[in-house]
Amino acid sequence: MKILRIEDVLRNKKISPISPPCLIAKELKIKYIIKENGRITGPAVGLSILVDKLTRNLPIKSMLDLCCGTGALSKIAKRNNVPKVVCVDKNIEAVKRNIDNKANVIILKADVLKFEINQFFDLIVLDTPKELLPKLFKRFEYFVSNSNIFVIWHGSCEEVEWNEKVRERLRSISRVVYSFSIYGEEISASSSTEKGISWLRKFYTKW
Q1: Which domain holds residue 172?
Q2: What is the pLDDT of residue 78?
Q3: Contact present, 152 and 134 (Cβ < 8 Å)
């Protein structure tokens, strides 16, 4: 994994200025991005849109950003006045550079496969590399039980069988599961609390 200044990446023409990572970085004033396995990574556009709408339209008071990467989703939450935001990643160099100390975001270095949650969150968002998801299936119930809403990005809308497998796992440990297809991405939101279910129903109806 490499941490790169977005200005240098654009100057060297290693990425298009209108690519999703660059557009999101520009909007959120992110200065450092991540290159991993030969490609620039960043939050999926669809997931960014969903987190933005959730934190703008629901009374979310706390959010846990798992596999936070550049910290983009945490910045969206703070922009929408979520009082408490905690972001977690094995490599926190990029998020530390992108999020000002004055933003009051708690940054924790930890492995999402082992991370222990010590408080209840209104919203937990998991934006992990797809190849890691099968290893996290067993932790889905833990994430659901520690939140009013658990949101997970799980791939392209074209991967029908895979997406159904993720939803089946969520349905087995949640009372409700809602699916969102945004810009070709498949994202699911689940809940097992009365508050979370009520929030999601209202949100999905207006969606």
Answers
A1: 45-206
A2: 96
A3: no
User: Residue 42: is its pLDDT beyond 80?
Assistant: no
Query: 180 and 87 share a domain?
Result: yes
On whether both 63 and 34 belong to a single domain, the answer is: no
Closest CA to 121 of 153, 148, 81, 89: 148
Give yes or no for residue 48 having a pLDDT over 80.
yes
Give the 3-state DSSP-derived string for the chain, with helices as H, strands as E and coil as C. CEEEEHHHHHHCCCCCCCCHHHHHHHHHCCCEEEEECCEEECCCHHHHHHHHHHHHHCCCCEEEEECCCCCHHHHHHHHCCCCEEEEEECCCHHHHHHCCHHHCEEEEECCCCCCCCCCCEEEEEECCCHHHHHHHHHHHHHHHHCEEEEEEEEEECCCHHHHHHHHHHHHHHCCEEEEEEECCEEEEEEECCHHHHHHHHHHHHHC
What is the value of pTM for the model shown? 0.94
Segment 80-134, tens digit of pLDDT: 999 999 999 999 999 999 998 777 899 999 999 999 999 999 999 999 988 999 9
Q: For residue 36, give both structure tokens.
A: 């991993």
Asked whether residue 10 falls in the same domain as residue 88, the answer is no
Structural domain total, the chain: 2
